[in-house]
Design goal:
By secondary structure, the chain is of the alpha+beta class. It is 53% helix and 7% strand. The protein has a four-stranded mixed sheet with strand order 2-1-3-4, covered by helices on one side. Helix 1 links the parallel strand 1 (2-5) and strand 2.
Amino acid sequence: MKIYDVEGFPNPARVRIALAEKGAVDQVEFVPVDVMGGEHRSDAFKARNPDAAVPCLELADGTHISQCTAITEYIDGLFDGPSLTGETPRERAQISMMNLRAEGGLLNAVGAYFHHATPGLGPDLETYQNAEWGQKQKEVAEGTMSYLNDVLADNAFIAGNKFTMADITAFAGLAFADFAKVEIPATLKNLVAWREKVAARPSIAG
């Protein structure tokens, strides 16, 4: 099993954390992709993943799976260990809902701000930018931070009282926010405390 990615990028980090949570990092071969050189937009890479994005999972039979949530669901089902995606219909629905909120409202929103309203990855890769859209998405990200802070007033983790892929996604979103210089208000004490707790997990702290 191979994973095409870039170590340190937000979405690849989500998959690497999931693998670490399942104790399966050593069962995967990581293949670096030269995103800064545009490799992800090459015909060869898009034959694996038409999204032209990392990460992308390649199975032994040649099957390719992209999109972090899909990859995480596969990893969660394949390897032993506590479930990251839920064990009951209710848990799965709750985790999926919160994961989508963290992904769309935080991680992707920060990404839109970074790629549209800042220099992003540079002019060779940022071939289209809409600064107004990027600034709007920054507002969305800030609103989602506030929402998650409220959620964490009554829950130990993003989707309840268990660590799940929703926490992984939110954590990656905040890391991207740091990189994009989208400030996490110190007044969001629940979110700040949750982040410190999650950062100390062996899958993240190393």
